[in-house]
Design goal:
2 domains, globular, seven-stranded mixed beta sheet
C-alpha cells in the first residue's frame, strides 16, 4: 500500500485520538471502533514514537483551533448528548463525500467532518473510458453521442492492443501523447463546454460539488512543521453557535460558480487542462495512465488550483 495512504490513515487516527483526549474531560465523548478505525490505528502503530508524536502534535494544533470555531464540539445539551467520533470508510468518497473524520451529536442533529490530508492536495482521481459517461456521473447531465463517437476509436485501439497481449506497455505506443492523450482531452474539453452551454448554471456548480464533495467540511493539511486548515462552507453548516456561545472566528460561506469561463491547456503541457470558472474557482485535470500496462481507460488527477478569496484558510506553525 502506498505510503501516501498509510500516512493519511495514521494522521486520521491521530486527529481522532487527539479530539478524544482534548474533549473527554469537558463533554461526553465516544469513539466508534469500526473497520476504518482498526485500519488507521494499525498504520499509526507502525510508526516510530517520534513520528507518532509529530502526527499527534500536528493534530492537536489543528484541534485547538477547531474547538474555538466550532463551539458545539465542546458543548453538549446534557450528559446524554454524546459527541461521537468516527472514521469514514473510503467507499463514502465515491458518493461525493470527501470527509474522513466525523464528529456527530445526534441529539443536536449536528455533525461536522474533516478531510485529512498528509502533504498533498489532490481532490479526486477519476477515470475516463468509453464506458464512462462522465457528464452523468459527475454533473447529472449526460454526455452526447458525438463525444463517444470521438473517443471510441482511441479506446477501441487500446482495448485491441490489450486483447492481443496483456503485457503490452504504454511506452510501446509511438507518440502516445499525440495519439491518445490529446484527442481524448480535446473531446473532453469540447464536451464540458457543450454541457455548460446547454445546461446554464448547472454544470459549473455541479463540477465543483463533485470535486470537493456535497457536504461542508474542514480540510486539514499536515505539512512540515505546520498545519493548514481550510473551511469549505458551501451550505452554511460550519461555524454554528451553541446556544449563547458564539464561535471565536467567523467563517464566510463559499460561493459556488455558476459558469465556465474557459478551458485551456496548461502552458507547455499536452496532458493538463485548466478549467476556469467564475467566483474565483480554477481546477486542473491532468490525464495519465494508471498502470504501466495498456488498458482501455485513463485516469485524471484533479486538483483545485485556486478557490474563491472567501475560502477561509488558517496556517498554524508547529514545533516538533
Amino acid at each position: 500500500m502506498a505510503s501516501q495512504t498509510i500516512n493519511g490513515k495514521a494522521f486520521e487516527y491521530a486527529l481522532l485520538f487527539e479530539f478524544y483526549e482534548r474533549l473527554k474531560t469537558i463533554t461526553s465523548v465516544s469513539i466508534t471502533k469500526n473497520e476504518p478505525y482498526k485500519t488507521a490505528i494499525g498504520f499509526f502503530d507502525g510508526f516510530s514514537e517520534t513520528e507518532q508524536e509529530t502526527f499527534r502534535i500536528t493534530a492537536s494544533a489543528s484541534i485547538n483551533f477547531l474547538i474555538d470555531i466550532e463551539p458545539r464540539l465542546s458543548n453538549g445539551i446534557n450528559e446524554d448528548d454524546i459527541l461521537v467520533l468516527e472514521l469514514v470508510s473510503d467507499q463514502a468518497g465515491q458518493t461525493g463525500d470527501v470527509r474522513d473524520v466525523l464528529m456527530i451529536r445526534s441529539i443536536q442533529k449536528w455533525e461536522i467532518g474533516i478531510s485529512a490530508k498528509n502533504n498533498h492536495r489532490a481532490v479526486k482521481h477519476s477515470r475516463l473510458s468509453n464506458k464512462i459517461n462522465f457528464g452523468e456521473k459527475w454533473l447529472g447531465v449526460s454526455c452526447s453521442d458525438n463525444y463517444f463517437k470521438e473517443i471510441n476509436p482511441i479506446f477501441d485501439m487500446l482495448a485491441d492492443l490489450r486483447a492481443k497481449d496483456k503485457t503490452t506497455k504504454w511506452t510501446s505506443i509511438d507518440n502516445m501523447r499525440q495519439v491518445v492523450y490529446l484527442p481524448i482531452l480535446d473531446a473532453f474539453r469540447k464536451e464540458l463546454l457543450r454541457l455548460d452551454k446547454e445546461n446554464p448554471n448547472i454544470v459549473a456548480e455541479n463540477l465543483v460539488q463533485y470535486l470537493i464533495g456535497n457536504q461542508d467540511f474542514y480540510k486539514v493539511i499536515k505539512g512540515k512543521k505546520k498545519v493548514e486548515i481550510q473551511a469549505y462552507n458551501l451550505h452554511g453548516t460550519l461555524n454554528l453557535p451553541f446556544e449563547k456561545i458564539k464561535p471565536k472566528a467567523k467563517i464566510p460561506k463559499l460561493k459556488l460558480p455558476t459558469r465556465l469561463i474557459e478551458i485551456v491547456y496548461q502552458e507547455n503541457s499536452t496532458t493538463t487542462l485548466l478549467v476556469s470558472l467564475n467566483e474565483g474557482w480554477q481546477i486542473s485535470f491532468r490525464i495519465h495512465n494508471a498502470s504501466t500496462r495498456v488498458e482501455p481507460s485513463l485516469k485524471f488527477d484533479i486538483n483545485l488550483v485556486s478557490a474563491p478569496h472567501t475560502l477561509f484558510t488558517n496556517h498554524i506553525f508547529v514545533n516538533g
